[in-house]
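Morning!

As promised:
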Amino acid sequence: MDNHHPFKSPQFERQQFRARLFFGTSLMVLLVSILLGRYYYLQVIKYEKFMTRSESNRVLVEPIAPTRGLIYDRNGVLLAQNRISFSLSVVIERADDLGLLLEEISSLITLSDKEKSQFYKQLNRRRRPFESVLLKMDLSEEEQAILAVNQYHLQGSLVTAKLLREYPFGQNFAHALGYVGRINDHEIDTLDPVLYTGTLVLGKTGLEKKYENDLLGRVGYQTVEVNNRGRMMRLLQRESPIDGKDLHLYLDYRLQRQAYRLLEGEKGAIVVIEIDTGGVLAMASAPSFNPNEFVSGISHKSYSELTHSSELPLFDRALRGQYPPGSTVKPVYGLAALDEGVINENYRISDPGYFKLPNSEHKYRDWKKGGHGNNIHLHDAIVQSCDTFFYNLTNLMSIDTFDRYGSAFGFGQKTGIDMPLERKGIMPSRSWKQEARSMRWYTGDTVNVSIGQGYTLTTPIQLAVMTAGIASRGEMRTPQLVQNQQNILPVKRKIEISENHWNYVHQSMEDVVHGAKGTARGISKGLNYKIAGKTGTVQVIKIKQEEKYDAGATAKRNRDHALFVAFAPRENPKIAVAIVIENAGSGSSQAAPVARKIMDAYMNFYPEALGGL
Amino acid sequence: MTQNDFVRQMRPGNSAFYDTRSQWNRFHCDIPMIVLLLILSTVGLLVLFSASGQNISLVKSQLVRFGIGFIAMIALAQIHPRFFERWAFLPYLGGILLLIMVPLFGIEKNGAQRWLSIGVQFQPSEIIKVSIPLLLASYLAKRSFPPSFKHVFFSLLFIAIPVGLVANQPDLGTAILIAIAGFSVLFLSGLPGRYLIFSSLSLAVVIPMGWLYVLHDYQKQRIITLFDPESDKLGAAWNIIQSTVAIGSGGFNGKGWGHGTQSQLNFLPESSTDFIIAVFAEEFGLFGVLLLVALYFALIARCLLISVRAQSMFGMLFAGSYTVLFFVYIFVNMGMVSGILPVVGVPLPFMSFGGTSVVTLMCGFGILMAISTEKNDMEKKRGG
């Protein structure tokens, strides 16, 4: 199969070669045309598209989280501050093997299941490239050190400094301030994604929740040029964040601390209102909890301890605890009777120790077996807390009148305090019973209402507001924790009652403490100012008709709630106090001494309150 | 054929410059080629400076390689082409020997063994790229035109050995380039049309077979990536996506020297080696690309002229096939970076950072200059 050409001619060879070379050259020209066509397509036709992609490649918009507003008490003492904390996050794009990295990290520091599951949830959410995903907040110094030492083989992990909320007074302000916590899955869907970029936490309860929008501030941005590893190379543009607004409260940290200390070991609440302004001076609920635990994510164990405790430490009793007010309402209904003119200052009854409605054999018992004797007028009824006198009012006033005055002093409605989740209690009325129980009103119901029992429920804050209303002779204000521009809160409504009646009731309340027969006379010893108050003792279990209640023999959880409301100084009232202590026993022995200590503390801190005397 | 006319017309024109160049011709220097090479080298160094992120030491080391290349080129130009024709098998044998040593003593980089180290690291496959056309040109020039079946068979064998060795490294890109260099000699030597038809048919069989049994997974991935770059955004396709973004965002005018964001911010991988054209295209735009291609084509035209004018068959064949090889380098590189060819490791002449290819490239041009000035020697003799 030899294919030799017959002769070897240089001329022919050269011609042949040139033909082939020409062909080759043509092919080259064709190919290079295709190539240039491709570059023309990319650089001219598709220029816009690739220019945009190149820009989005290199330019990264990073949020700068604003600093959360601080919370101060009335003296300028920090109640909620921000401290630097280090948290660990992962840049997925930089980690070679995510599973392996997490394994290594968890072999170095402890990662809870919750932290891991939150991490994975966040991982599946939409992110910008190279945006880090939070793994663990608030690393301890030891953890920081361990991570720093092992940094070289933890490619992709990132330790960053962030500001974290801190509550220096811990339990003392837990319910009032509330706390911030990590934004959870449900919240993230409802939050404005723009405002919360770069922010990890959110106010969950209390003032932190109520004033979330003020405290949050406004997120800032910086546009940076990044390299392919996401490292910032150059700052292109910056819009600084606007820090959250600081809150200045009416609360006095000293009084609050004192209130919380007084409740130690008890379940209950203390609310102190500054009468001149309507601001809340102290608002404590016990037992309490440490809000700092929630900031960086509370552990499952601690959280379930808190939620499963029968003491309900997370429950804000001051705003959400609903208790029958008991005898503490007596001044209100006394005022009602006087103002309505159904009785006057000389109206008297005799008290056999019980009360019977006309045409009924049912005995409504006075707390004092055998009664308070003859010639009991309103003053005595308040001072000695005579139930029969108030039972008797049901013959003179209908439930509608009780309802009108109770409502005027704020029962059955939210006080409007600047806190979330306040409860409104119950001021029983015909319509209320029809709606809630689908039953018509009986006069027997009114008898129970007249001594603040039956269907009546009030919160400690309502009792404090009522007391402030009595003290200020009918000036009803909306209690507030946060001070706005005007220091003195406006009077929401003025209860118009004759001065004489106010004087009469004030005198009666003074004698509760200072009178020889006053139910709270035990606290008057050594007082250099005058307290006007009213005790209340509320039954937790029903006591049968002929049975006698014996505190010692009754299980703690069935014991009476002790209540006391008071204002002082009597002549020129500065503060109103409401105290509820659950299952403590009688108001006079358990709640009144607490009020005295609060009053003393206040007079000690604000000696000018006595100056007017 | 008008080719003869073309050549004839050029001759008097060239002779007109003869006297002014006599000094240079004495040193066997082809002035237009040297000028073009110097311009391309300078452009290459400037682009490399930008592509490497203003790494002056990298540019210096490349400059040293250019220096070595230029010296080697001038030195080789002094040797008579007949010497290359006679001893052509030596670099080939040496190259094969070195290729055999690669799997035994080679250095592994990125999962492939391509480098040998004797004080400096170099790629033996680069040497084969130049020595294959040299060997085949010398082998076929002695034989009759067109080559007989026997000669074609041996030529194919000469090609197959290094192609097999290089493909085994694995370095498919270089293997294909070596094959193309070899085939171009065969083609230029007047390989009959039926061989071309036969080889096309056999390619149609070999390609699917190769896909199934020869190609490594990463090589297949590169070809898949070519057709669907978005399929694997952060993996194999990353390079292509980033390089097309770089090229496209350059537009017609470019972003300016040192201002290519894709390359300066390291989004573009291999920006100073195989993907350097993307940096160039990003910074100098289509305008720059057109100028660069024009420069390359001026050099190619000069080489073709040398080939056509060569005195010996060997000279014609080597110059012609070496020009084709040079073109294929440029086409494959610019094609792969712009996303119309699979990603194979082929550097862009004068631009990509890399020692062996610079030096071997210059050696080839040195032989071309020797061929180019051979004729002048004869004319000089005739004239004298």
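DSSP finds 23 helices and 21 strands in chain A.

Hope this helps with the figure draft.
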